[in-house]
Amino acid sequence: MTVPNLVGAGLIVIGAGIGLGKIGGSAMEGIARQPEATGKIQTAMIIIAALLEGLAFGALFLGK
Amino acid sequence: MDQLLNDFSPGLFIIQTFLLLGLIFLMVKFAWKPIMSAIESREEGIKDALASAEEAKKEMQNITADSEKLLKEARAEREGMLKEAKDIKESMIAEAKEQAEAEGSKMIEKAKLTIEAEKKAALEDIKKQVATLSVAVAEKMLKEELADDKKQQKYIEDSLKDIQLN
Amino acid sequence: MRPAFTKYILVVLSVLATQFNFAKEKEEKHADDGGIVDSQEEISEYILHHIKDAHDFHLFSYTNGDGERKHIGFPLPVIVYTSEGLRAFMSSEFHHDDSGHHIVEADGVQLVKYHEKIYELNAGAHAVKFDHETHKPTNAASVLDLSITKSVFGILLVGVLMLLAFGGLAKQYKNDQIPTGFARFLEPLVIYVRDEIARPNIGEKKYKRFTGYLLTVFFFIWILNLFGLTPLGFNVTGQIAVTFCLALFTFLITQFSGTKDYWKHIFWMPGVHPVMKVILAPIEVLGMFTKPFALMVRLFANISAGHIVVMSLIAITFTLKASMGIVGSSLISIVLSFFITLIEVLVAFLQAYIFTMLSALFIGLAVEEHEH
């Protein structure tokens, strides 16, 4: 692994981390506001998180 | 990416493809189809059972309503009958009363008439008796009075006087 | 070194009861490379070796009284398609060599195993040599490896288990409408996949056609993920070939069940400006491929990363031995790896769920009929 590779990987992880944080935070807010919709919010959260994760992993492996 | 391609084993991929195809085929044939149809038929059964229970409940309600209606009708009929009977009784009593009254008044009338007749008869009788008595008394008195001529004269005169006045 | 190691083994044995997985994987560590793993480089190499496929099934190894390494496990059949045709033999022929030195003669072809890959040596070569730039062998050719490897063994095992378990469940319905025993635990899972994954994502009308595939894939991935957490050390769903195959199935099913609307939305998006249509078409076509690619990479990366993390935490016992002592480093290692293993149990389910869920979502998007 070269230095640019590592920097790139770090950037990807930072980006993915911010994204996941926002998804999780919004989901928590939503659940707090509407506890009866917890199941639906969780499903949507997991799907979006999975899509983001796929993107991040894809980028990581393309750079590896 | 290089690492990813390097790690990729074509042999494993081929085997996995065939095994997964076989697994899907076998699972669908021997597991999922019978499981799904069993679960679905069971769900259908539960739905049917619930529906029929609901229907039975409705029917039960209908029956209850019907019997209530019948009961009401019967009660109304009974009440009507009772009322009728009461009316009849009352009318009968009234009629009897009226009849009795009429009879009574008739009898009273009759009695009155009889009494009147009796009274008349009695009065007639008394009149007769009085007449006889007075005749007898008058006879006696006349006999007594008219024993002397003077007196006889006087009496005739008085009587004549009276007649004249009348 | 040796007395210290014996002492370490005693510590490991004393915690065997509290963390079976931990101790088992540790012992396995000694198995695959044959020797004892102690240094940081050896640990990295061992972990990378573990997440690869293997041609024999090792449970653990130990050093006996005479200082001799003993390997406990069993060999698996090697089936390779070489330039001379198909060759088959047991993996024990390699004598646990993984460095490309032990040559197996199989009817006129010389085969060696190097990092769990089998190469056919050119005439006159004695050991496989690699070009440092391209990492391609200079004096040997790759062969098509159709062996029953550890992963294939795992797939077969899971397939048989699934057939037995769910076939048993199916058979129970013949006698009784309500299953008993273990099947009682399986039935809600089947209903869960149908009602929470297939039905809402594909739609009430068409979900029935795809439940078979989704159920198979869900349980296949989940059980294999869980197997990966046992001391058996499977890493099947962490093999890129396996996840590629799974993603390819989803891709093909999605494309072949796509409605007219689906293709229209890809090549000629309705309701936008014609210039936008031209711009959107290549993006949508790219999206067709990135979706299953993400499916493939996600599962592979999550499971591989999980294995690497668990094994690295177990390896803390070695790496921090010098600074914290055996007891301290073991304690940290046990606590950390125990909790990470718990998380991995969750991840095992989550990844199976996400794979099935996204597959259902993609299929649902393809079979959806729009009303314009």
Q: Which helices and strands occur, and which strands form pairs?
A:
The complex is a heterotrimer of chains A (64), B (166) and C (372).
Chain A: H1 3-33, H2 38-63
Chain B: H1 2-7, H2 10-145, H3 149-165
Chain C: H1 2-16, H2 20-32, H3 40-50, E1 56-63, E2 69-75, E3 77-82, E4 85-90, E5 104-106, E6 109-114, E7 117-121, E8 140-142, E9 144-145, H4 150-175, H5 182-202, H6 211-229, H7 240-256, H8 260-267, H9 274-314, H10 316-319, H11 321-367
Antiparallel strand pairs in C: 1-2, 3-4, 3-9, 5-6, 6-7, 7-8
Helix pairs in contact in C: 1-2, 1-11, 3-9, 4-5, 4-6, 5-6, 5-11, 6-11, 7-9, 7-11, 9-11
Describe what this molecule looks like in 3D.
- The complex is a heterotrimer of chains A (64), B (166) and C (372).
- Chain A is built from 2 helices and no strands.
- Chain A has 64 residues and is mainly α.
- Chain A has a domain of 42 residues.
- In chain A, helix 1 packs antiparallel against helix 2.
- Chain A is elongated and about 50 Å long.
- Chain B has one domain.
- The longest helix of chain B is centred in the middle third of the chain and has 136 residues.
- The N and C termini of chain B lie far apart (177 Å).
- The mean pLDDT of chain B is 87.
- Chain C has 2 domains: 80 residues, no CATH class; 217 residues, no CATH class.
- Chain C is 60% helix and 12% strand.
- Chain C is built from 11 helices and 9 strands.
- In chain C, strands 5-6-7-8 form a 4-stranded antiparallel sheet, with no helix packed on it. A 3-stranded antiparallel sheet of chain C has the order 4-3-9, with no helix packed on it. Chain C has a two-stranded antiparallel ribbon with strand order 1-2.
- In chain C, a hairpin with a 2-residue loop joins strand 6 and strand 7.
- Chains in contact: A-B, A-C, B-C.
- At the A-C interface, helix 2 of A face helix 9 and helix 11 of C.
Low-confidence stretches of chain A: none
SS content category of chain C: alpha+beta
Instruction: Tell me how many strands of chain C there are.
Output: 9
The mean pLDDT of chain C is 81
Relative helix content of chain A: over 70%
Task: Categorize the overall geometry of chain A.
Answer: elongated
- Number of discrete domains of chain C: 2
Which oligomeric form is depicted?
Answer: heterotrimer
**Radius of gyration of chain C using CA atoms only:** 25 Å
Family (chain B): Belongs to the ATPase B chain family.
GO cellular component, one term (chain B): proton-transporting ATP synthase complex
Coiled coil (chain B): 39-102
Pfam families (chain B): ATP-synt_B
